[in-house]
Amino acid sequence: MATVYVSYTPKNDEKQPEGLIQATIGKETVALLPVEIGNEKLNCIQAAQKVGTQIPHYCWHPALTVVASCRMCLVEVGERKPDGAVVMQPRVVPGCQTPVKDGTVIVTTTAKVHGAQQQTLEGILLNHPLDCPVCDKAGECMLQDYTYGYGRATSRMIEQKNTPANKPNLGPNVSLFTDRCIMCSRCVRFTREVAGTAELQIINRGNHAEINVFPGEALDNKLASNVVDLCPVGALCSNDFLYKHRVWNLKTVDSVCPDCSTGCSIHLDGNKNIVYRLRPRDNPKAQGHFMCDEGRLGYGYVNSKDRILKPTRLGKAILWKDATKDIRETFELAAKKDGSTVAMMVSPWMTSEEALLLAKWARTLSRDVRLALGPVPTVGKDDHYPKDRRGNDLNSAPKFTIRAEKCPNKKGVSEVLKQFQLRLHTFEDLLSWVDAGQLQAVYLAAGYPPRGQGWITTEQADKFKKVQTVVVHDLATSPVSDIATWVLPAAAFAEKEGTFVNHAGLAQAVRWGVTPSGDCRTDGQVFLDLLQRRGLAHVGTLRKELAKEVRYFAPLAEGELGEYGIHLETPQGA
Amino acid sequence: MADFEPVLLRRILKNASPSLEAYRGDGGYKALEKALNTMTPQQVTQAVIDSKLRGRGGAGFPTGVKWTFLPKGHPGPIYLCINADESEPCTFNNRILMDQDPHQVIEGIILSSYAIGATTAYYYVRYEYGDATRATQKAIDECYAAGLLGKNIAGKQGFNLDIFVHRGAGAYICGEETGLIESLEGKRAWPRIKPPFPAVEGAFRKPTIVNNVETMACITHIVERGADWFRSIGVPPDPNNPRDNGSTGPKLFCISGHVNKPGVVELPMGLTVRDLLEKHGGGIWEGKKAKGAIPGGVSMGVIPDTEFDMRLDFNGPAKYGCLGLGTAAVTYFDQDTSIVDVLYNICRFFEHESCGQCTPCREGTGWMHKIVDRIRKGQGRYDDLKILEEVGDQIGITPGTTICGLADGAGWPVKLAVRKFRSEFESYIKNGKKTHSLTLVGAH
Ligand SMILES: Cc1cc2nc3c(=O)[nH]c(=O)nc-3n(C[C@H](O)[C@H](O)[C@H](O)COP(=O)(O)O)c2cc1C
Ligand code: SF4
Ligand code: SF4
Ligand code: SF4
Ligand code: FES
Q1: A116 contacts in B (CB within 8 Å)?
Q2: A461 and A552 in one domain?
Q3: ipTM attached to this prediction
Q4: Are A91 and A27 members of one domain?
């Protein structure tokens, strides 16, 4: 067990914590708050975080090597001896580079530390353009925040600033505003240590040092845009987001990326029913700190005008209430004759709760209604990072994996279906039933993002001509929506709530950041209506129902998943 | 001290040939023979510790003590890096050794490798030192041919050593020991954070000792003549201060600037700045008076002529606020020199050479340079002096704000110049005085 002592700064309306120890450091009296850190290996920044004390930092990042070069995290450290005496080191030290041990004293409140912080910020600002009004990062910029919190009120610099040329399109997704760079080297370390492709380097020396790509190369790898989040300032900007929106107008919800079964935790930023960007959200249980560019930039269809926006019957717009009533009656009729002529497909884009509601509707119709999992798009092999310089796989333990399974909830949907039906049927099974003329009514809960070749080929769709009643519940038209009797608009991941289960059995909460476009309703709401259950689809209630009715989901009985989600399986290696 | 006989420059002063044959004719490689036949590696290390030799590269760290920081019983490889990046302005003592007596250094390298158990030595030579590189490579080739390098050196079974000459990357920062190691590994010379220190994890993540060229040359003579002999030269350790290592052994001093006789002289440490000028530098040129001097390479600071009683040993300069003895390269300037110009030139150097990773150094060096430039153009403000002193005080490993000592060396001359020559800066500011020539002084 180890105790670390962190200088305590009173916060607004917080009552003074117990156990404060007074110590004299130089000419100042400092209150030290003891904190138990157990056997954890921490640096000063992490140890101070334990008591809620922020040590400002730029170059340090928990997923990258320590370089201790920005000198934003300077603190005073010392040791509290067993007799209670506090002995301080004579010089300031970088908190990121300084490990703590039993008795370490971390002081952030002295004039010396404030002076060092001011000096570093003044240095950074010497050649910084301060073009915040036109800078994408303004509002979430660590230079703005730290200058406000720790900097000098006025600038003493009257010389000309350096004006290096900007580098638009450092890669297809990222631009560099060279003059805003504070040389923390996070971006360079990321491409070397996490992506491994090492496209970035630093050229020139001293205050003329610049980030650049190697000659003839581009910052072009599947993780490239992470440098935008890593960049503490507005130097590296996402081409996708650039000049689209001021960040303080964005509304952020915590959600899950739907584009592969890694299930990266994300922040979803939207405003006025438009999704503006996805950003990775730190989650040690899921992917760590990052996300891939495919997922990050894959949300475009949510905002698309080409989506299915209204329920239709044989191409004519109809009201929802008529649609759900007619569909229900048609399916009831078919099921009454012979339950086994009715089938429902649940795509791996549906939430687990939606899968539950649809499966329950199926069971209210007849115990013979067939359930099948929709097509599971798979592209290539799991893609592990870091790679080597040439993009080949390394044999080391991966720091990030983009999965071949390009959907968010195959696991969750499959587990629900398995609860209701002994065998998990696939899309191929469904096609073979259709082919064999065994089906009269089919409900295709698709909700596939329109991309690539689409989820169903014309050839496959044509088979459904044999089926009397086809309902397609989807985001965009497809060969099968041309054949369907009813076409219902689905909601995109950004518009609904529920649970996605990733490849490793981690249940995470998807949350809506924008409301469904046009006349869309959330899919869960549609299924509730089909079930003739009253009220709105409330995710907490539905999740409890899921936990109760599907054994696999039993750990979710509380209805809440917390920030990082809940493991439904014992994680590998645990 | 009048009877001091040059040791390091002995052959150079006689204009002796740098060839192996000539070196041997003058008694060369006797020390190696002695060590291999009569001493264990531990005994060589002990002799170096006993000699109180302090590194000649600038920091003055006791060489033998540094060697003991290597992990004990390490299976190897252990590397020795010879720091011949010599880029401190006004410093050229390594160069003369490499150009004109390369075997003296190589013998020291072989001896040191024997002592520390290194089987590979990297000789990192400043890129601009073409002649030195060629002379060194030629001498190494001669050694291989004569069985003094390679396998079973000089017949000693199991003692192997290869020396690779590596040409530097043309930057001052390549001389900082971890910058050197990074550069040697093929990377940008961005100094590493310590710990780990190179002795524990250095080149290619293996234990590594970095030593200066002149340090190596001293080793040759310590082994040959003994630690007692070495310790009898110069300033002995202060008996009242157990942590003082003294300033023992012969030392090369570079004399440059406005003097009648610039050059390298070999002397025991402890003489004054004035004596060095008058007895060895031939006094200030053109019959003028001295205005001041840079006592040990520009990183160490500047002093006015009123402080010429400063003793040139490892402890002397600090008594006058200087950073240290540095490379013992003393530059004098005459009464007509503008201190603002001197400082401008120094600031220009450090802005150019800061590697750019630590914010305080990267930005501080540039800022100081711009301010001094403005002052010399007649647009200074009184506030500028405060800022110069403040920045000068706040950058470096001494206050704890940077990774390497370049920043200390950049700040030191600035704050000392402002403090020791304040009235001249003030007169620039008050009168809007401009430097008579705004053209650049020197070239780099
Ligand atoms: C910016 C900077 C530049 C340096 N340049 C040199 C150099 O050119 N040659 C050198 O021997 N030491 C140089 N040093 C000192 C080295 O870091 C190191 O202390 C030295 O090589 C150790 O050798 P020694 O113990 O034999 O002196 C430099 C240090 C700094 C901070
Ligand atoms: S990086 Fe930050 S401080 Fe700089 S211009 Fe952008 S918002 Fe302003
Ligand atoms: S571009 Fe951004 S992340 Fe990269 S070094 Fe500059 S400030 Fe740091
Ligand atoms: S002090 Fe200066 S030269 Fe040394 S590592 Fe830092 S920025 Fe580079
Ligand atoms: S965060 Fe510690 S030096 Fe940059």
Answers
A1: 394, 399-401
A2: yes
A3: 0.93
A4: yes
Q: What is the reported pLDDT for A224? A: 98
Within 8 A of A92 by CB-CB distance, chain B residues are 399-401
CB atoms within 10 A of CB B139: 25
Give the separation between CA A572 and CA A401, rounded to whole angstroms.
Answer: 15
Please, are residues A190 and A227 in contact by the beta-carbon 8 Å criterion?
A: yes
Q: Does residue B380 line the site of ligand 1, with CB under 6 A? A: no
Does ligand 2 come within 6 angstroms of the Cβ of A125? no
- Whose alpha carbon is nearest atom 4 of ligand 3? A187
Cβ–ligand 3 distance for A230 under 6 Å, the answer yes
Q: Is B402 on the interface with A (CB under 8 A)?
A: yes
Write out the residue range of the structural domain in which residue A259 sits: 129-303
Nearest-atom number in ligand 1 for the CA of B172 is 3
Q: Is it the case that residue B304 has pLDDT exceeding 80?
A: yes
Question: Is the predicted pLDDT of residue A573 greater than 80, yes or no?
Answer: no
**From CA A8, how far away is CA A51, in angstroms rounded?**
8
Considering its fold, how many domains does chain A have in total? Answer: 3
Is the minimum distance from the CB of A58 to ligand 5 under 6 angstroms?
Answer: yes
B257 membership: H or E segment, kind and range: strand B250-257
Q: For A126, which of B353, B363, B383 is closest by C-beta distance?
A: B363
Chain A touched by B45 (CB under 8 Å): no
Q: Tell me: do A498 and A424 sit in the same domain.
A: yes
How close A184 comes to chain B (CA, Å)? Answer: 8
Alpha carbon distances (Å) from A145 to A58, A410, A482: 12, 41, 54
Ligand 1 neighbourhood includes B397 CB (under 6 angstroms) = no
Using the Cβ of A21 and the Cβ atoms of chain B, whether some distance falls under 8 Å is answered with no
Domain boundary among A101, A121, A141: A121
- Going along chain B from its start, the domains and CATH numbers come out as 10-232 (3.40.50.11540), 247-334 (3.10.20.600), 339-431 (1.20.1440.230)
Q: Are residues A411 and A531 in the same domain?
A: yes
pLDDT in tens, A422-442: 999 999 999 999 999 999 999
- Whichever domain contains A419, its CATH number is 3.40.50.740
Residues A286 and A328 occupy one common structural domain: no
Helix (H) or strand (E) holding B384: helix B382-394
pLDDT one-digit tens code per residue, B210-261: 999 999 999 999 999 999 999 999 999 999 998 899 999 999 999 999 999 9
Q: What is the DSSP letter of A214?
A: P
Check if A127 contacts B (Cβ < 8 Å): yes
Q: What's A499's DSSP letter?
A: E
Final residue belonging to a domain, choices A303, A326, A352:
A303
Terminal CA-CA length for chain B: 38
Give the distance (Å) from ligand 3 centre to CA of residue A236. Answer: 7
Q: What is the pTM of this model?
A: 0.95
A401 forms beta bridges with A384
